[in-house]
Amino acid sequence: MAWIQLRINTPPQAAEALGERLSDWGAQAVTFVDAKDTPWYEPKPGEVQLWPDTQVVGLFDAEDDLTPLLLELKSQLPPDALIKLDPLEDKDWEREWMDNFHPMQFGTRLWICPSWREVPDANAVNVMLDPGLAFGTGTHPTTALCLRWLDGLPLSESLVVDFGCGSGILGIAALKLGAKRVVGIDIDPQAIQASQDNANRNQVGEQIELYLPQNQPALKADVVVANILAGPLRELREVITAYCRPGGKLALSGILKEQAEDIRQLYSEDFDMDDIAIEGDWARVSGTRHP
After folding, report:
1. Disulfide: which of 27, 35, 84, 205 matches 199 by Cβ 3.0-4.6 Å?
2. Is 184 labelled a binding residue?
3. CATH for 234
4. Alpha-carbon distance 77 to 132, whole Å?
């Protein structure tokens, strides 16, 4: 099927109403993107932030007649407003995406492999994971930082807490690396389901327990990993710390490198902190809980 996309630059206060108008005209999808590459990091819980220069993008069937919509927009928007209609190449986007998703190695033992690719090393620790609705495939630097950290730990017989488990990739990797049991916690029911499905696919489904926050158990783990965001890491410091036993290991990510020292200092009250690990714009903070 052929598609066309309509792109309109607008101030943020008008973006949502404009997006609703495109939906009324039959847009199959409406997205909001940054028109000028403006950094914009952590919204508060429940807050929707748009950029000072927002671009509203509507995706339409190429057979749709958008002339009346374009005339309406030109009559209502400022004369210098960008209104651009572009054809999209008709291709098998799913196949193209699959062709470009390859097995990835983290540390010395661990590989994350999509199911449609051949495993590069049958003797390695291989986690089979297909991207889905929940965050975490290994492609993002924050996930990669945590996977390499786990690969470097002696996890045999350990209890691991994956706080903000997403796809379950960190907990599953821990189990494949020798952990005895993983407890995963996430606010999103879809993440809970994705984690269980991915654990089952990797034959570790019986070793993982998954909870929404209101049901999370009280326990002391040997290893705690939380790949979320700096804001929740600050707000939930006491909760996350309480999961880690004395002498246990902690890793925190989802942190911009500019935020890392602040998080490191915050957790140093209860942990002997390691050097900050950096990859691109992102960081990992880790440490060992005081005895």
Report:
1. 205
2. no
3. 3.40.50.150
4. 38
